[in-house]
């Protein structure tokens, strides 16, 4: 038997924080890729410390639903899961290339294939583009349109900015959008000045966050000038400084994120290629049905 465990931050304050995690788990569970699919959280139940006890399988592919490498993926998760012999050097990562470390959980004896976070996987670029398609309702969006990837930005974790720049570069390399820019909430270039960075009339803005919460639902819309008060709502698209801004909300709420989770597990050795194709097709159909 092989199982998948998706671990995420969760929140005591935002009841919607765990919603994308559960939705992606449901999608993968329905694909039949694994004998078991479980979720665990830092701030919700089941906790990281207890989640392995909910799994019967002896072999587990564990995927962090986090955007970047850092404190949680390198310290908190391995500590709480009690992964014997864990050392961050196992990943030999430059801040973007964490892949897989195979370890044993000390108290359960299970074999854990500990994967890098979903946010740094190359397949997340596809999800960002899909998010642009979803919010505009245009599967060919790109021509005469700008694209902004937005991150938090922090001096405490330089890898946070690395993930944003990485995907902005990959979207730029697609040569699909007229202009592509990485923007941040707490460092330059700031999302507050989004219209200063684009000549295109239309701009798609996609935050590289796992779930919608305080930052994506309140801070970013107000910072960009979509609204003076997030509680009154805002139009999509909204007109700001003669630009039309298509604000997509957190990339992690896009159904195709389930594919990135599967890609991480496949990279770690899980034989699930058929399931990956199924999930890609299913999320594509769901997107089209919602448009």
UniProtKB/TrEMBL annotation:
<keyword id="KW-0170">Cobalt</keyword>
<keyword id="KW-0456">Lyase</keyword>
<dbReference type="GO" id="GO:0016852">
    <property type="term" value="F:sirohydrochlorin cobaltochelatase activity"/>
</dbReference>
<protein>
    <submittedName>
        <fullName>Sirohydrochlorin cobaltochelatase</fullName>
        <ecNumber>4.99.1.3</ecNumber>
    </submittedName>
</protein>
<dbReference type="InterPro" id="IPR002762">
    <property type="entry name" value="CbiX-like"/>
</dbReference>
<keyword id="KW-0479">Metal-binding</keyword>
<keyword id="KW-0169">Cobalamin biosynthesis</keyword>
<dbReference type="GO" id="GO:0009236">
    <property type="term" value="P:cobalamin biosynthetic process"/>
</dbReference>
<dbReference type="GO" id="GO:0046872">
    <property type="term" value="F:metal ion binding"/>
</dbReference>
<dbReference type="InterPro" id="IPR050963">
    <property type="entry name" value="Sirohydro_Cobaltochel/CbiX"/>
</dbReference>
<dbReference type="Pfam" id="PF01903">
    <property type="entry name" value="CbiX"/>
</dbReference>
